[in-house]
Amino acid sequence: MSANTFGNAGFSVLLPGARLEGRCGPTNARVRCHLGVKIPPGCELVVGGEPQCWAEGHCLLVDDSFLHTVAHNGTPEDGPRVVFIVDLWHPNVAGAERQALDFVFAPDP
Question: What are the angstrom distances between the C-alpha of 15 and each of 43, 46, 74, 89?
């Protein structure tokens, strides 16, 4: 998904006590792959009202167009929650639609 502005990759770091209130991603044309790098106890992700579970060394696919919240309810001794996130095309987006989205949402030069 790197040919348009909706495709990103990077680390997400959440410190103990932090909470990201309910939000929705900008499009349902993607799914986000979360690779658990460091997942202390007390971390939670709820997507569309359904609790999800991160696990270190494992991937979790998330459609962030649904309302979602993230929280780290651990202690300072637990350290941060670290997830590597990569955006992928939603499997229901056809090739022609991908090309059109890449054209319309191309990043600025």
Answer: 10, 17, 9, 29
* The two three-digit tokens of residue 34, written as one number: 């979360």
Q: Burial code of 58-87, b = ≥16 C-beta within 10 A, e = fewer?
A: eebebebbeebebbbebeeebebbbbeebb
pLDDT digits (tens, 9 = 90+) for 11-66: 999 999 999 999 998 888 889 999 999 999 999 999 999 999 999 999 999 998 99
- In whole angstroms, give the CA distance from residue 101 to residue 61: 21
Summarised one tens digit per residue, pLDDT across range 70-101 is 999 999 999 999 999 998 888 888 888 878 87
Asked if 24 contacts 98 with a C-beta cutoff of 8 angstroms, the reply is no
Give the integer Cα–Cα distance in Å for 26 and 43: 24
